[in-house]
Amino acid sequence: MAFLTRARLLLILAVLCGFLFVSLLASLYLGPVQLGIDFSEIGSQFWNLLRRQELSQEGVIVFRIRLPRALLAVLVGGGLGLAGASFQALLRNPLADPYILGVSGGSAFTAVLGMIFSFYLGFAVVPLFAFLGALLAIFLVLSVARIGGRMPVLTLLLAGVVVNAFFSALVMLVLSIAPSHHLPSAIFWMMGGLSPKNYWVIGLVGLYYLPGIFILLGMAREFNLFSLGEESAEQLGVNVEKSKLVAFIFASLVTAVGVSVSGLIGFLGLIVPHIIRLIFGPDHRLLLPASFIFGAIFLIWCDFLARMMIAPAELPVGVITALLGGPFFIWLLHKTKEILR
Amino acid sequence: MKALSIEGLGFSYDSRQVLSGLSFDLKRGEIMGVIGPNGSGKSTLIRLVSGVLKPDSGKIKIFSKEIESYSRKELAQKLSVIPQQTELTFPYQVLEVVLMGRAPYLRRFQLEGAKDIKIARNCLSQTGCLGLESRRIDEISGGERQRVILAKALAQEPEVILADEPTAHLDLEHQIKFMKLISDLREREKISVLFTTHDLNLASIFADRILVLDQGRLAGLGAPKEVLKPELMSKIYHLKLKLIPGIYQNRPMLIPEMELSNGE
Amino acid sequence: MGKMVKGLKVIAISWVISLVIWSGCKEGKTQANDEVAYPRIVSLAPSITEIIFALGIGEHLVGVTDHCNYPALARSKPKLGGLKTIGLEAVVSKKPDFIFATRDGNEPNLLERLSQLGFKVFSFEPRNLEQVLDTIISIGDLLGAEEQAKLLVSELRAKQNEVEQRLEGVEMVSVILIYQRSPLIVAGSGTFADDLIKRAKGENLAGKAEIPYPAYSLEEIIKKAPAVIVDVSMGKSQNAQKEVIEFWSSWKELPAVKNQRIYALNPDLITRPGPRLFDGLLELAQKIHPENFKVEN
Q1: DSSP assignment, residue A255?
Q2: Does the pLDDT of residue B194 top 80, yes or no?
Q3: Confidence band of C35 (pLDDT split at 50, 70, 90)
Q4: With contacts defined as CB-CB under 8 Å, which chain A residues touch C107?
């Protein structure tokens, strides 16, 4: 395996983008409802979509149901893959995932509250509440873990575990005394799913993702240097404390945006970076963008399974990612044992 | 110009005074060994000079410029560090690790270019590791790894190398090889080296001068034969030491005087 | 009584008509729906499915949930998923003119999206018997079945009045209704069961707290010592009554056990806000005050 040159980087990313494009097209064509292929028809429907004119039934299915969903999968899957790789680098721990530092607990708690009060406030508040909960968790973790301008990784991890545990307990409390018709909604939210959204929301979500994605991609070198240890990184010119803070905040924000629109889709942020690392090596300048693209591809296909397995009913996509998570861990353990031997 | 100039350095940690009133110079092209018992402040000294820790009092000057006036990157271009052990979270290849040493010269989104690769390979060949280029860092031996880390430190094109017990985990062969490499580098590139060690005799053989730390204070500074005297060493290490004079160019060696239980 | 027979006749005739139409459409699975006359209706809740069939317009249903199991015809309607897992594409592909849903049971995102796509979505949240009747009228109005709706409502009211007449002046009997065994969940205030129990002149001993589905311990039930226990946890199987009695008979301290006042009941009769809620009322009344229902019928 050669090291990273610009040519190799661009080639690999281009190939991955190719796979992503193919996956996108596949997810538009394949689904619970059979479609006939008629390219001119598809073209004219797409044109109608852009001109905001009425679509045929097939047009509605492809362009107002499947395409938004696929785009959402790209954003959320990509974000989770990127955030997962970033947390693994920040915490110098291959078992880290995007939810480990409190975001899952905080957002679950406020999302459930949002669901309960949605009767009065309208259901649109739930994503907003979820996002605020994630911010709250981030703030709590920072206050606990940051001591005198420094943020030791171990303290960060512990703070995340504590905040998650605390909020999970609150979620259980709320669910046990709330009117029980909220229970299924809460559970499905926590499983994570790509619920139907319109293009305006997706565009907004994309905008919220952009700064975080850009900043995290820019931290690739720091992440590489972190792997040698914080002092080594510092001695190579990295402002370690500032980098850790920036990485933590933006990786958490990227995770929070995804969580607010799609709940807690698990395992993706953990598995995707490992697979990329296995195939292409640990250099973050390739790992980060590749984790984004592969995360998008991964979620598109998991969502495909979620739509097809019990068609016409739809499973929450988090069920699929969790089903894949178990075997993945077994395989990872097997591989680790081989290395240790 | 002196490579390093330390004046009145003081540092405390958790209300424990680790270093106080330390002053010394490191000449350009000099190899200085720092010895002293556990807790005497050797590692802290390295971390202070490399800029990772900030001193409570005193001045650190690198090539007559105060350390604060260097940006992190500028400092990394002048000074590189070899720690006792390097973390290895992810399985990078040897060449990738050495290329990390070029980081201080690269901008944020810039990839390493042909020049950087040439320098990295050169450093690998200087440390005798060229054949390891594509091997994974977690798959090579401890001795090889330490030499790769040295290559990385060299890739920074430093003028000063700080090494914190660099031979602590190496077997005898690799200890000697490593220190010989340091000597060669000093000869060829005029790199100044400050290293800490527990091995008095290694320091005696390879260092131009030895600095002795005891409880954070300077307890001796000078050529090995001036400093490695039994009276001073015995006081510091609480052991009776016997001197074996000048085996290598007037460099003394010390061994402990002991009564063994089987009456030898 | 006469009204009831007339109502049954209407239902029977509608059923036969539905059957005829349905058998005519049996060939070809998805195409069949294309032949269903206007309006095309999707029901996203079992209670609404029941209402639509009771209105006699069941043949217009082009999509129901997996849980829509009553009447029998509903089971052969195309399925769109469970309450929370309705497939959006599946709904859209049925080209519905009307989509009926419940805000609590269904996923709000889905309903929102269906509205955005231009479909007519109507949500209903009946919380007691009266509101069920209102729902029936609303659905009837929307679907051009006002007459059938009025008819259905009057039949159901008749059932209700029958019960109330028979129970006039009767003393309240203490009741606890049990939804499930482990954990032990009973019917609290705000549930349909609570409403029905009250109308059946029962005193719901679990109805004081504000929680609709409180989890009780067995001791709590023993302490409260209801005169009647209704246990719906065993569903509608034939053996339900036997099993329920067997389970509770080990708690001999309970007056309900001593006096053999333990009853099983089909949970669908007391949880679905549809026409069968009135059947549930009748059954509860018969179980709580059997002496008032001993006459023929």
Answers
A1: H
A2: yes
A3: low
A4: 185, 188, 195
Taking Cα atoms as reference points, which of B98, B68, B64 lies closest to residue B80? Answer: B98
How confident is the model over B82-135, as pLDDT tens digits?
988 788 888 899 999 999 999 999 988 888 888 999 999 999 988 888 888 888
CA B258 – CA C8 distance, rounded (Å): 112
Instruction: Determine which helix (DSSP H) or strand (DSSP E) holds B22, and give its type and residue range.
Output: strand B16-27
C-alpha torsion angle, residues A58, A60, A64, A69 (rounded to 10): -40
Q: Under an 8 A CB cutoff, do A118 and C66 touch?
A: no
| Strands C61-63, C41-43: pairing kind | parallel
Tell which residue, B205, B240, B199, has the closest CA to residue B223: B205
- Give CA–CA dist A216/A205, Å, rounded: 17
A280 close to A293: Cβ distance less than 8 angstroms:
no
Task: Tell me the pTM.
Answer: 0.84
Q: Where are the domains of chain A?
A: 68-340
Q: How far is CA C172 from the centre of its chain?
A: 24
Provide the ipTM: 0.87
Q: Which of residues 322-341 of A touch B (CB under 8 A)?
A: 339
Contact criterion met (CB below 8 Å) for B35 and B198:
yes
**Among residues A313, A257, A268, which one has the least CA distance to residue A138?**
A257
Residue C105 with chain A: CB contacts under 8 Å: 181
Residues in chain C: 297
- The pLDDT, as a whole number, for residue A340 is 57
Q: How many CB pairs under 8 A join A and C?
A: 83
Q: What digits encode the pLDDT tens for the residues B23-62?
A: 999 999 999 999 998 888 899 999 999 988 899 999 999 9
Task: Give the helix/strand (H/E) hosting C202.
Answer: strand C202-204
3-state secondary structure of A279: helix
Distance CA B9, CA A166 (A): 45
Of A218, A228, A234, the CB nearest to B100: A228
- Number of neighbours of residue B225 by Cβ within 10 angstroms: 16
CB C45 within 8 A of CB C106: yes
| Contact of B35 with B227, CB cutoff 8 Å | no
Q: Would you state the structure tokens that stand for residue B42, as one six-digit string?
A: 């050797």
Residue A277 predicted with pLDDT over 70: yes
Q: Which amino acid is present at B262?
A: N
Q: Which tens digit of pLDDT belongs to each residue from A148-164?
A: 888 899 999 999 999 99
A29 pLDDT band, cuts 50/70/90, is confident
pLDDT digits (tens, 9 = 90+) for C243-252: 898 888 888 8
Separation of alpha carbons B252 and B243, rounded Å: 7
Angle at alpha carbon of residue A124, lines to A119 and A126, rounded to 5°: 80
Q: How far apart are CA A109 and CA A116, in angstroms?
A: 11
pLDDT in tens, C223-239: 889 999 999 988 888 88
Contact in structure between B72 and B30 (CB atoms under 8 Å): no
What is the rounded CA–CA span in Å between residue C97 and residue A54? Answer: 16
Residue from B90, B118, B121, B124 whose CB has the most chain A CBs within 10 Å, to mutate: B90
What integer is the mean pLDDT of B210-225?
90
Between helix A240-262 and helix A103-121 the angle, nearest 10°, is 40
| pLDDT of res. C11 | 64
**Helices then strands, each counted (H, E), chain C:** 13, 9
CATH fourth-level superfamily of A68-340: ABC transporter involved in vitamin B12 uptake, BtuC (1.10.3470.10)
Task: Identify the CA nearest to A101 among candidates A168, A147, A159.
Answer: A159
More confident residue, B64 or C7: B64
With contact defined as beta carbons under 8 Å apart, do C163 and C285 qualify? yes
- Angle, CA B33 vertex, CA B28 and CA B37 arms, to 5°: 150
Joined together, the tokens standing for residue A155 give 């303290």
Pairwise CA distance, residues A33 & A20, whole Å: 22
